[in-house]
Amino acid sequence: MNNVVLIGRLTRDPELRYIPNSGQAVSTFSLAVDKNLSKDKKQEMEARNQPTADFVNIVVWGKSAENCANYLVKGRLVGIQGRIQSGSYEAKDGTKRYTTDVVASTVEFLEWGDSKPQGDSNSKGSDFSDLQDFHPIDNDDIPF
């Protein structure tokens, strides 16, 4: 079984690319996921200049990749569900490099701010009308 669920904050803005010939969208970004540390252990690690979070590379494909690139920015809280994918490549200096990424099947936008989506200067950050399968509801319609 290969299933990953993460909640964390983006460490950089997503990078969007399109695969030549197919035109398939792919977005990549890094996610900082806090380690589950006690307050004392966290302070101890910070004092020794050790990381208190894990940094995970995320890959998203298709329409979700475009949505991530258009609506997510560094620092935003997101939930990711997907699978681990490992690989390798040869660097320019001839050494073999190994990679481990999470290929996201679902990206949940857990936090929205006042920043505007890229390329739309008249839209507010809470206007999600062009997101696939997103339908805003009135809070009065929620049964609890």
Describe this entry's structure for a reader.
Helices cover 13% and strands 40% of the residues. The chain is mainly β and 144 residues long. It has one domain: Nucleic acid-binding proteins (OB fold (Dihydrolipoamide Acetyltransferase, E2P)), CATH 2.40.50.140. The radius of gyration is 18 Å and the shape is flat.
Brief description of this entry?
This protein has 144 residues and is mainly β. It has helices at residues 39-47, 62-71; strands spanning 4-10, 15-18, 25-34, 53-61, 77-90, 96-109.
Question: What topology emerges from the helices and strands here?
Answer:
Elements: E1 4-10, E2 15-18, E3 25-34, H1 39-47, E4 53-61, H2 62-71, E5 77-90, E6 96-109
Parallel strand pairs: 4-6
Antiparallel strand pairs: 1-3, 1-5, 2-3, 3-4, 5-6
Pfam families: SSB
Protein name: Single-stranded DNA-binding protein
Keywords: DNA-binding
Strand count, sense and barrel status of the largest sheet are: 5 strands, mixed, barrel
Which architecture would the CATH scheme give at its second level? Beta Barrel
CATH homology superfamily name: Nucleic acid-binding proteins
Integer average pLDDT: 84
Question: Could you state the order of secondary-structure elements as H and E?
Answer: EEEHEHEE
How many independent structural domains?
Answer: 1
Distance between the termini: 35 Å
| Radius of gyration over C-alpha positions, nearest whole angstrom | 18 Å
Class of secondary structure makeup: mainly beta
Strands, count: 6
Strand content: 35-45%
Instruction: Give unreliable regions as ranges.
Output: 116-126
Percent of residues in helices: 10-25%
